[in-house]
Amino acid sequence: MSAETIFDGVLAGRTAVVTGASRGIGTAVASVLMSAGADVIALQRSSPGVELRRASTRVQRSLTHQEVDLADQRSIAQAVERITAEHRVDILVNNAGLQIRHDSIEFPIDEFDRVLAVNTSAVFQLSQAFGRGMLERGSGKIVALASLLSFQGGLRVPAYAASKGAVAQLVKALSNEWAGRGVNVNAVAPGYVATEMNEALMNDPDRYRQLSERIPAGRWAQPEDIARAVGFLCTPYADYIHGTVLPVDGGWLGR
After folding, report:
1. CATH among 3.40.50.2300, 3.40.50.720, 3.20.20.10, 3.90.79.10 for 15-195+222-247
2. Is residue 192 annotated as part of the catalytic site, yes or no?
3. pTM
4. pLDDT in tens, 54-92
5. Non-local CB neighbours of 1 within 8 Å, separated by 6+ positions
């Protein structure tokens, strides 16, 4: 079934903020939410791409862009202020992520800090900021993008692993406080996805083969595979799901 039709109309009248919607998983998530009836605010540096603008036109949903630097707390606060002045945000998808690879012994501390700023601190700041309105209304959905490295350590990615481990714990901590007040906070942990972030792995024949052979499903995920899971957690069908980190990994963690 098409990602564009799987939740047709179930989110009508809602507004979703999606970080990093310009490509990959973020574009697929925004497309699914719009097809489900939501208007989408893309929170990112660059304007939404052609693919997402076409999706918006096809399903006749509003797509707007709010520029932000997710490594800068002041930039985030200003973006939130502008959005909340004009919109009621019902859904927040913390999708944007930064990946930097170095051997751990050589990993620059400033790059380590930047990864944590984008992947963890921004997730908390946005969840806190948009969560206030959700808590006042007694309803809302927050979904963060975790990772297989929320559970495993990986190679040459200590900052990314640390940041995604923190995201997994963060959704549990927020859920403990907010579940009883009508706000669902969950995460999706993608496995290996055929996106630009993983080009280094995909372009290494030996590493690509090793990873592919370990996936029981026999293939890498496409962005739509992850977007469908995120979309589900944003719908009323997931009203009793709180504090969950849902692996969407083709069976990797069960291997």
Report:
1. 3.40.50.720
2. no
3. 0.96
4. 999 999 999 999 999 999 999 999 999 999 999 999 999
5. none
Residues near 185 by beta carbon (within 8 Å), at least 6 away in sequence: 127, 142, 143, 144, 171, 174, 175, 178, 179, 242, 243
Closest CA to 43 of 150, 105, 118: 118
Please state, in angstroms and rounded to a whole number, the distance separating the CA atoms of residues 191 and 32.
19
Question: In the chain, where are the structural domains located?
Answer: 15-195+222-247
State the catalytic residue, choosing from 160, 192, 208, 237: 160
Query: Which of 197, 199, 193, 255 is CA-nearest to residue 219?
Result: 193
| 234 membership: H or E segment, kind and range | helix 223-234
How open is the CA angle 42-236-191, to the nearest 5 degrees? 60
